[in-house]
Specification:
The chain has 132 residues and is mainly β. 6% of the residues lie in helices and 45% in strands.
Length: 132
């Protein structure tokens, strides 16, 4: 049975950078689209970025566009989220999910709510705290 594991979270000062990893075991991440979500304290989880395994398609929400970058390394079975110019508003638990491109993009880039699709794989989350 496959699983996803996020890593790379931690405490960073405002204006700093972090790179999160989403590593798959038990299945080939190259066969799935990957989405990154985050949940800040007291807020609903939001989709912020996704990457299609079928083409070079990527998507970024307005809240992270121009600051975050999603990268895929199929040899390492990992998708990364490079985060730059971090601010206190980026403090959250960050999760990755893997599923078909339609399901991933329909929620993160499209009209569907997260509750409308049950993703095949979810990670356990990694905490990112931006504070001086």
């Amino acid at each position: 049975q496959g699983q996803l594991v996020e890593s790379g979270g931690g405490l960073v000062q405002p204006g700093g950078s972090l790179t999160l990893s989403c590593t798959a075991s038990g299945f080939a991440l190259a066969n799935y689209a990957v989405g990154w979500f985050r949940q800040a304290p007291g807020k609903e989880r939001e989709g912020i970025s996704c990457d299609s395994n079928l083409d070079s398609g990527t998507y970024y929400s307005d809240s992270v566009k121009g600051r975050f970058n999603i990268l895929r390394d199929n040899d390492k079975n990992t998708v990364y989220l490079q985060m730059n110019s971090l601010g206190p508003e980026d403090t959250a638990v960050y999760y990755c999910a893997a599923d078909t491109p339609i399901n991933i993009f329909a929620v993160i880039a499209g009209p569907l709510g997260e509750h409308e699709i049950e993703y095949k794989y979810w990670g356990q989350g990694t905490q990112v705290t931006v504070s001086s």
